[in-house]
């Protein structure tokens, strides 16, 4: 037996563990606001992309069917409709999944050539100055693109 030579214990002490947990929690609290902002921006982007996809679907249906397709605003939804013998048939519907995200929807007709009756400039916003809003720009020729709201389809 050797006297004076103690074997060191391995692992963390309770104090070291508490300090590490404290640092991790402080970093998590600092990251939380930016993560919330990221989620808001992603909701806005997703809504803008879905709205653009619904418009492109309506345009392709008009050309494919060789028939006028209506984009009809109903409450906070956009309906893709065609005329049938009994009235109108809804092919697809767009409504934002997020109540904080608004889109300024308008009624439009897409001719069988893919052209619109009027140009459109649709603002997609969540009324939060910290997120970047979008515009769905649609020319009378039928071309569409998503742009930043500040560009105003220029």
From TrEMBL:
Location(s) in or outside the cell: Cell inner membrane
Start and end residues of each General secretion pathway GspH domain: 47-142
Bilayer topology: Single-pass membrane protein
A Gene Ontology term for the protein's cellular component: type II protein secretion system complex
Source species, domain of life: Bacteria
Keyword Protein transport in record: no
GO biological process: protein secretion by the type II secretion system
InterPro entries in the cross-refs: N_methyl_site (IPR012902), Pilin-like (IPR045584), T2SS_GspH (IPR022346)
Keywords from the named record: Cell inner membrane, Cell membrane, Membrane, Methylation, Transmembrane, Transmembrane helix
Record keyword Cell division present: no
Annotated Gene3D superfamilies: minor pseudopilin epsh domain
NCBIfam families assigned: IV_pilin_GFxxxE (TIGR02532)
Family statement: Belongs to the GSP H family.
The protein, known as: Type II secretion system protein H
Biological classification of the source: Bacteria, Pseudomonadati, Pseudomonadota, Gammaproteobacteria, Alteromonadales
